[in-house]
Amino acid sequence: MNAPISPLSEWLESGVDPDLIALNVQTLSGDTPYPYLLYEINAASGRVHPGAQWRWARKHYSHIEHGGWWCSGQDPLNNWQPMYWGCFKPHQPRNAFDPKGKIKPVKYEHPPKTPTRAFFLQVPDHIWAKVAARYGVPIDPEDLELLSGGAGELLSGGAGERKDENLSSAPSPCSPSATPTSSPNQPQFWQWVWDNNIPVIIVEGVKKAGCLLTLGYAAIALPGVTGGVRTKTLQGEKCDPYLIPELQHFATEEREIYICFDRDSKRQTIQNVNREIGKLGRLFTAAKCSVKVINLPGPEKGVDDFVVLKGSDAFSALKNEAQGFQFWLARESWLLTYPASLRLNSRYLGKLPYPESGLACIKAPKGTGKTQALTNLVSQSLSTGDRRVLIITHRIQLGRAICASLGINYIDETRDSAEGKLFGYGLCIDSLH
């Protein structure tokens, strides 16, 4: 078995600042991960007796004893106190069934029987300064005074969410595993972002948020593309979609919201991601936010991969080209999601290798020989008689011209022609009924 990559190396490979890593990522092993992951063990296990709870925990989660890293953040709904909800990436993940019934390793563990939340990472001073410089918004002098004199008190945290008393107490998630070179400015950074309507970028995956924060963008991470919207009430009944409370908190009027989810090549995954972008976009738009969608060009899947490979300037250009949500919606209604199997860089299409079966779609500008490229295929069908040809266009005159060039009758010519509809015919889409 290959040795696991250290958390520091893994996060550095995603382009995350070392000080930010030190403030937010902890390495846990043995019994230590249990109180982090199972702080709501009463609800998770369905047991009341502590002994029964521990037996349940070790039966279902013993793999976390082999170690891994834990990351959480600050809680915007609790005065930016440490959030006990977070994620644990085990060195030896367990297997579980996915929605399609396939067995797959669970890469990231989240507290069970607990609603997923969002990540608001702690931010070192120099990154706060970078965000402030990027948007031209000064840091309040009172915040600067707090930073210089009260960082230690801010680190001590508060009550936060209530942890289950039947599990041993976990160290405060606010306590970093390594000492950063600059003091953490909590909770002022995210409050400053909220107060000044600083634009935020919503990503999937906490390392991606760390990467964009490193570049000087206020990035909020969801645990997955479906994590930002609820479609059921707390009682489990279906309801109209609504933003999770943390995102509602940032859905302030005229705030710029950028959505930057992963790029995938699988058609079904693309549809699922676009559906969730649509939900988020509509809800933020309803809150009078200015919503834009950042489309990663690929082949890199995540924004952290893109930044590491292409650099910060490339991402800045990508962000500047982000599409307004309404334009993105319109574009997605006609955009083909299947990847092209053949790309050409020539004046004319020429002879194309059509498949023997299935649906073949050709996208090319006017005058590149699309009709001519069909000639051999149609001629073969006419000579063998094994298939009839149906030509459908959106204009009558265009249909007549194509049929004439391919040697097929247009629909109003079939009555006076000896061949009639024997070999097929052409017609306008409005006549197809």
From TrEMBL:
Its EC number is 2.7.7.-. It comes from the Bacteria. The keyword Nucleotidyltransferase applies. Residues 155-186 are annotated as: Disordered. Residues 189-313 form the DUF3854 domain. GO terms for molecular function: nucleotidyltransferase activity. InterPro entries: DUF3854, TOPRIM_DnaG/twinkle. The keyword Isomerase does not apply. It is an enzyme of class 2 (transferase). Keywords: Nucleotidyltransferase, Transferase. Coiled coil: none annotated. Residues 168-184 have a biased composition (Low complexity). This is DNA primase.
